[in-house]
Specification:
Helix 1 packs across helix 2 and helix 7 packs across helix 8. The strands form 2 sheets. The chain has a 7-stranded parallel beta sheet, with helices on one face. Helix 4 links the parallel strand 6 and strand 7. It contains 11 helices and 9 strands.
């Protein structure tokens, strides 16, 4: 597995990271904890060193799983987690005192004494971002946090935060069918030397080619049940995108998943996708994307074909979009 550096920071990680959320939350039944541990350790054995979680996943259970899985190899991996999306009273909370409480709780669940990369999960409109960045800066000075990140943040927030303490990475949703970051956030990251970590790089499963208009999502445990892009009608109308990726994959002798991830890797050398992997077979498929080389001709061909495909449906539910700046 090759490595990449996130922007101008000293943080180097595997070219493909692992989104751990799906093992506990968000896209169906949670994995058995022993199975989850095995999957995470298999990812490490195959070269993945960058693992992403959050207190909100579960909530709390995903951090516990990640902590147990990585405890024996803690010094050899990079753990990213997030604060601010849940609170005692519900809703967003990035007050400085709350950030400190969350960090102490996360450290215990993760079985570690430091967090490599700490993200603000969603921007709290009631707390100045300068106060948030200042609090994380203090935590960095105390050795409890190494690097600072922002998730689903817009350019204004990123610039203000970066002026107080360097932002190492921005984690926004980005994939071949969710390209909003290309307009403003990616250019700003390049200008400021900030790495970019796409979440949902496989379109929350759609770009795997395994979802059809007949696929159903349980509203009790699958967030996609509320995503407009995952209604039967939207899925049907968005299938030409999968067909296009399938054609390219066939010509390259690889999987649709590998094309989707290789496309992201080809955008910028400081982009590190974190696909959700809740089965060992998915790890085996995902990591091969780092070996797929897409030429400028390939990328131009993909852009040309994408220009004639109209994606139907918002990327997230109305509630989640309302707390996303991007």
């Amino acid at each position: 597995m090759k490595i990449r550096r996130l922007g101008n920071s000293g943080l180097t990680v595997s070219e493909i990271g692992m989104g751990c959320m799906n093992l506990s939350f968000g896209t169906g039944e949670a994995a058995n904890i022993n199975e989850g541990i095995q999957i995470i350790r298999d990812a490490y054995d195959q070269g993945i060193t960058f693992f992403d979680t959050a207190e909100a996943y579960g909530p709390f259970t995903n951090e516990e799983l990640v902590g147990k899985a990585l405890e024996p190899i803690r010094k050899k991996v990079v753990i990213a987690t997030k604060f601010g999306m849940i609170s005692e009273n519900g809703g967003l909370n990035s007050r400085p005192d709350h950030i400190r409480k969350v960090v102490e709780a996360s450290l215990k669940r993760l079985k570690t004494d430091y967090i490599d990369l700490l993200y603000q999960h969603r921007v709290d409109p009631n707390v100045p971002i300068e106060d948030v960045a200042g609090t994380v800066k203090d935590l960095v000075q105390e050795g409890k946090v190494i690097y600072f990140g922002l998730s689903e943040a817009g350019t204004n927030t990123i610039e203000k935060a970066h002026a107080v303490h360097p932002v190492t990475a921005v984690q926004n949703q980005y994939s071949i069918w969710t390209r909003e970051p290309e307009k403003q956030v990616l250019p700003l990251c390049e200008k400021l030397g900030i790495g970019f970590v796409p979440w949902g790089p496989l379109g929350t499963g759609f770009l795997t080619g395994k979802i059809t208009p007949e696929t159903t999502f349980n509203p009790e445990n699958d967030l996609r049940a509320s995503f407009p892009r995952f209604t039967p009608e939207a899925i049907k109308n968005n299938m030409p995108l999968v067909a296009m990726l399938n054609d390219i994959a066939s010509n390259k002798g690889c999987s649709t998943v590998q094309i989707a991830l290789a496309w992201l890797l080809a955008q910028k050398e400081w982009i590190v996708p974190i696909p959700g992997m809740d089965k060992i077979e998915y790890i085996n498929d995902n990591i091969k994307s780092a070996d797929i080389i897409l030429s400028k001709k390939d990328l131009d061909e993909i852009d040309e074909k994408l220009s004639s495909i109209q994606i139907q449906g918002e990327r997230l539910s109305e509630d989640l979009l309302s707390i996303s700046e991007e």
